[in-house]
Design goal:
The protein has about 260 residues and is α+β, with helices and mostly antiparallel strands. It is built from eight helices and eleven strands. The radius of gyration is 23 Å and the shape is elongated.
Length: about 260
């Protein structure tokens, strides 16, 4: 689903920014260094071996690892302050970028292709087979099975609804394959927090449950989303406006 990207400014702040949220900082330096070390370790044999099938297999493995790393960045980094992604259709829905799930799918596809290359090298006449632990038939089957499992795991997420949706009935959101909804009369509080240095949007249910949402699931500044939810929690007479996303957002922010 396409989304509209906007830069907004909250008119009146209602949600408290706790210190843990303000100080939440996630560094990408260590993950990047580890990825580069792993990629370098895998590419080194390529420089020492001139077999085309082996080079192709290693390239696909490295590409799969890079895609996997890129897919984890949204888990670590919250969107920039004031930036939101809206669904163009009603009701008001904050959407994550589709690229996240495409990257999640690209990694398993690379592993599947790498395993296929290993198997082909064993059976295609005139091609020198890939040797070593990976070159054994079990190595190819392992990567094929890993790729298929990853594809079957990620594909439903790509096809299902995503984001955080506000309607006159309540707040609905999707995490993976699970759909959640809290009616307005069941929502006690909306807050901001942090977990493992990552920013979180927290929805407090009147039954005592607290739902912690990673910004990746709604692709927008958690402060803006929290302020919008808070406004419509406090102003039930305005909830009919949620059928017009831009009009509803205009009640809370300038853009």
């Amino acid at each position: 689903m396409s989304s509209q990207k906007l830069k907004v400014r909250i008119k009146k702040a209602r949600v408290v920014l706790p210190l843990e949220y303000q100080h939440a900082r996630t560094s990408l330096v260590l993950p990047i260094v580890l990825m580069l070390i792993l990629v370098g370790f895998l590419l080194l044999p390529v420089l020492l071996d001139n077999k085309p099938y082996f080079r192709l297999m290693m390239f696909l493995l490295v590409l799969g690892i890079v895609f996997f790393f890129l897919s984890t960045i949204p888990w670590r980094k919250a969107p920039s302050p004031g930036k939101v992604r809206l669904s163009p259709t009603s009701p008001l829905k904050f959407l994550p970028p589709t690229a996240i799930w495409i990257l999640n799918l690209a990694g398993p596809i690379c592993f599947l292709l790498a395993g296929t290359v290993v198997i082909l090298s064993l059976f295609v006449l005139g091609i020198e087979p890939i040797t070593g632990p990976i070159g054994r038939r079990g190595g190819g089957v392992f990567f094929i099975a890993l790729g298929i499992a990853g594809i079957f795991y990620q594909m439903p997420k790509l096809l299902r609804p995503r984001g955080v949706e506000l309607s006159p009935e309540g707040v609905r959101w999707w995490q993976g394959l699970r759909e959640n909804i809290i009616p307005w009369d069941g929502l006690a509080e909306v807050a901001l927090g942090a977990k493992k240095k990552g920013k979180r949007l927290r929805l407090h249910h009147r039954d005592g449950n607290v739902h912690s949402l990673v910004p990746m699931f709604f692709g927008s500044d958690p402060v803006v989303v929290a302020e919008v939810i808070r406004y419509f929690l406090d102003h039930p007479d305005d909830r009919e406006t949620l059928s017009d996303p831009r009009a509803a957002l205009a009640l809370v922010a300038d853009f």
